Amino acid sequence: MATETLLAITDLDTAYGSSQVLFGLNLHIPAGGVATLLGRNGMGKTTTVRSILGLTPARSGSIRFRGERIDQLSPDRIARMGVAVVPEGRQIFPNLTVLENLKAFAAQRNASPTPWTLERIYHLFPVLEKRARNMGNQLSGGEQQMLAIGRALMTNPHLLILDEATEGLAPLIREDIWACLATLRAQGQSILVIDKYVQRLLPLAQQHTLIERGRVVWSGDSPTLAAQPDLWHQYVGI
Asked: In the CATH scheme, what is the homologous superfamily, with its name and number, of domain 1-82+158-238?
């Protein structure tokens, strides 16, 4: 039985004014699957995320989400369809408490019989319950990342996107984030991860896409990528 495709990016060109960034990019994420987008800084990963979210509209090509074209939709419409992002830099509200940050994003966008609630977020990240009354700017970098993930999950998305999932985090905190993503995968959450730690992503994700200067240079599954370390050293550098 074929796996349903949740997100399908086909021949995507994206530009900022006259400066083209993405060239015929293709990326597919199966429903319930975890995929990665890999490459060095400045190669088009964040632009790809912005195109999915409708923040930088596609010049040509198509983006389909749950079978529907979204490449010409507004960002708020795309978000309401069930796409949530943990952005690079976290971007939590510094003048709101942890509790207020979470409550502000509460929604039910995937009709799950077991939706994400405050209680479930606190179970996933116990430190957030301890910090519930702390302001966003009183959290450590790791706690802010946990809050950003929790905030995205509170929308109950079909697709969770993490842009630079563990950037700037201490090694122990990175391990906490990997463990969280493994838990989400086991629960059937569809995820797109952008990060540089290929060795940690190999057991987490099923599908990987490497890009260089806005073009896909390789795509395939974890066993195939694991067998070609020279490839990911060349294009990711870790």
From this structure: P-loop containing nucleotide triphosphate hydrolases (3.40.50.300)
